[in-house]
Write a structure and sequence with these properties.
The complex is a heterodimer of chains A (about 260) and B (about 325).
Chain A (H helix, E strand, L loop, with lengths): L4 E10 L2 E11 L4 E5 L6 H8 L6 E6 L2 E2 L5 H7 E4 L11 H6 L14 H13 L15 H15 L3 E4 L8 H17 L3 E5 L3 H7 L2 E5 L5 E4 L1 H4 L2 H8 L3 E6 L2 E6 L1
Parallel strand pairs in A: 3-8, 3-9, 6-7, 7-8
Antiparallel strand pairs in A: 1-2, 1-4, 4-5, 9-10, 11-12
Chain B lengths: L14 H22 L7 H8 L5 H35 L12 H14 L3 H25 L6 H25 L2 H12 L9 H14 L3 H7 L3 H6 L4 H23 L5 H13 L3 H25 L8 H23 L1
Helix pairs in contact in B: 1-3, 1-13, 2-3, 3-8, 3-11, 3-12, 3-13, 4-5, 4-6, 4-7, 4-11, 5-6, 5-11, 8-11, 9-13, 12-13, 12-14, 13-14
The chains are: A alpha/beta (about 260), B mainly alpha (about 325).
Amino acid sequence: MNALLTSRGLQVCRGERQLVSDFDFDLNAGELVAVVGPNGAGKSSLLTALAGLLPAGGDIFLRGRALGKLSRRQIARHLAFLAQDNEDPYPATVIETALIGRHPHIDFWRWESTADRRRALKALRAVGLAEAANRQVATLSGGERRRLAIATLLSQAPRAYLLDEPLEALDLAFQVKLLRLMRHLAALGGVGVMFSLHDLSLAARHADRVILLDGCGGTALGKPEAVLKPGDLGNIYGCAIRRVEIEGLPFYVAR
Amino acid sequence: MAAELAYSVHRPIRRGAALVLILAIGAAAALLMSLFVGSVYVTPGAVLAALTGHGNALDHTLVLDLRLPRALAAFSTGALLGLAGALMQVLLRNPLADPYVLGVSGGAATGALIALLAGLGTTAATGTAFAGALVSTLIVFVLAHGRGSWAPTRLLLTGIVMAAGWGAVVSLLLALSPDATLRSMLFWMMGDLAYRSAWHLPLVVMMAALLIAMPFARTLNVLARGELPARALGVPVQAVNIGIYLLASLITAVAVVEAGTIGFVGLIVPHMIRLTGGADHRLVLPGAALGGGLLLTVADMVARSVAAPRALPVGVITAAIGVPLFLYLLLRTRTLK
């Protein structure tokens, strides 16, 4: 089995609602998979469940091994999860926060090594925060904090990235920059990225495959042009959605 | 400005390590000083003579039998409170948490007051206070843990409600008690090292607790980022939460039994360390222990000497020293930004 992350017959529920039923999926190395759907359709729940952070029915395998048989620490070495919002009640510097990502790789009795710090600094550089390494997190803007959270994942250096709304709070330039960074990671080999977002246009242009959740347990999975059909989208979102092309790139507009 | 300096992977800024060293030296100095200072001043020569087994009997008694045990009791109690506060603040992800927030001290007070009301004396009160603290710990644990998931908010609310309940019981006991026992009860409640039991127990418990907690300090750093990110980074959150809760409650119980409820130390000392040395718990834990010990040693020294022969409640002094110092640190960090 070559897939990084595999689900077979996945069932995800929140309370009484069945959000995902019988979902078979493989996240392969080298690909970007977007998760889209209306508010409350279960995008976060699906990602959290695949990360093993939400109890779910069915089977999940991380690089061929059953997720339930692995410790959280073993999982964290291969799979990183970006939560929708971060709390930071205590003061910490930017570099300290990025170094947190090294936690699953450092032995219980050891401290971070120079190599760990170098990796964390490199991660900060990738999101444009290297200059701010010694700053307090509290002094960062919302978008900068989001980038810092992504840097923490980069320093974790997993094979599978599960990102819940990574583009949230980022300006237009950084949205594209982050998508390119994700593409770059996937192209380097051995890495697969799965991310949820609301912007269907970005999903269509940047993802290799798209998962569309209808909020009633139904899932559509496939190439962006096959899944993101204006008619289906209109039914699921409950409003007319048009697909237009500008300079050959697809855009989705709600009417 | 130091904060703007470029970060070096080879020499990460170790301001925290320097802080811990300074606190250790300060604590040692305070312990030494508390041997001289008190209602009667003992000269350095006499202290040295007493410590080496020479000198006259009065100095010997004063230094070795009265001041040294009391200073060690103050230091270890303060260290326990600082450590417990730092742990509770991570456990509840709430900067307002202190060692008493989950009702441990209320349970201890209730236990102690029942013993005093029954006329059993202070030795028995020590035992019943410890029992009360443990009962309170278990009640909160079972109630908050009942439905499996253990959100910090749920734990916090359960603890606060239990603390309020104990407060009502304490008021009831005070209202029922005759005038003769009321004074000793009030003194127990105010927190005072004059009624300490033995200094060995808090010292041993403090060192053991620090040894147990230190290897988990990096895990605490991750946990402080929130429960979901911590799990995603490989922390077995549930088990670590339970461990922190039991450890923090136990050491708080030892501190309360030793010296009653002493405010401010457990709340502000960990924050002082975070404000000056950074939030890395590998430095916050020893820093909070040393800082708490230092603060309480100094406060107790002041309390028993400033208005001698009258001794003031030590809680008054910890507040008098701690509140302005904490506010200064808080304001200073605000202007830095």
